[in-house]
Specification:
InterPro entries: Uncharacterised_YxcD (IPR020516). The protein has 92 residues and is of the alpha+beta class. It has one domain. It contains two helices and six strands. A three-stranded antiparallel beta sheet has the order 1-6-5. A three-stranded antiparallel beta sheet has the order 2-3-4. A hairpin with a 3-residue loop joins strand 5 and strand 6. Helix 1 crosses helix 2. The longest helix is centred in the first third of the chain and has 16 residues.
């Protein structure tokens, strides 16, 4: 299964909203990939910015897959990739 940029962003929004006790609509996310740091995301919650690293993104996807698709996946079975857009390949 593969999920794309919008769903990855939704996963991070839902995850950060739950952790911060705010509504998902109060969270903004910008994904990025850099040679030095790998996959990261800048997250704005209530006007405050924070960067999260790949392991945090994978945690958000893991939780999203369970809540939205009722599928228990582990971080080790999620692979992030990007070209013109971001996607996560999730092994069955």
């Amino acid at each position: 299964m593969r999920i794309y940029t919008d769903e990855i962003i939704n996963a991070i929004c839902l995850h950060m909203a739950e952790r911060r006790g705010v509504k998902p609509s109060d969270v903004e996310v910008q994904l990025s990939w850099e040679e030095q740091y790998g996959f990261t995301a800048e997250v704005w919650v209530s006007g405050r910015s924070q960067y999260i690293i790949e392991s945090n993104i994978l945690e958000a996807i893991e939780q999203y897959m369970y809540k939205e698709y009722n599928r228990r996946v582990f971080r080790s079975s999620i692979k992030l990739d990007a070209d013109e857009e971001f996607w996560a390949e999730i092994e069955d």
